[in-house]
Amino acid sequence: MAGFSGLPPFITLTTLTTFPLIMVEIFKTNVTGKRVAGRVLKALHLHLPACSFNFDLEDCDRILRAQSESLALQVNEVIAVVKRCNVEISLFED
């Protein structure tokens, strides 16, 4: 059986559509406490409800993890929302 639209026979349209695109970005912050983290998470969920967020406050870089399964993650919007909470943030570089 030939593949869809000239695709190799082992790749079908079903195969291409069963895996959702998951976007993940990691940010470095200066958040040190749960109270501030909660305030930031609340603001992020309000402004970007299609995304999920969490902090790793035990990491030395106070990591904020952002994930989206339905759309491209808006890095600049995440940074703007966090900065409005008076928190330092930058995209984590490997």
**Mean model confidence by pLDDT:** 85
Name of the level-1 CATH class = Alpha Beta
Distance between the termini: 43 Å
Low-confidence stretches: none
* Beta-strand share of residues: 15-25%
Adjacency order of strands in the biggest sheet: 2-3-1-4
User: The CATH topology is what?
Assistant: Alpha-Beta Plaits
**What form results from the Cα inertia axes?**
elongated
Provide the structure class.
Answer: alpha+beta
Helix tally equals: 3
Order of helices and strands: HEHEEHE
Give the total of beta strands: 4
The assembly state of the depicted protein chains is single chain
Bin the helical content.
25-40%
Based on the coordinates given, report the CATH architecture: 2-Layer Sandwich
User: How many structural domains?
Assistant: 1
Radius of gyration from CA coordinates: 18 Å
The main pleated sheet reads as: 4 strands, antiparallel
Describe this structure in words.
This protein is an alpha+beta fold. It has three helices and four strands, in the order H-E-H-E-E-H-E. It has a single domain, classed as Alpha-Beta Plaits (2-Layer Sandwich), CATH 3.30.70. Strands 2-3-1-4 form a four-stranded antiparallel beta sheet, with helices on one face. The relative contact order is 0.23.
Properties at a glance:
94 residues, alpha+beta, Alpha-Beta Plaits, four-stranded antiparallel sheet, 23% strand
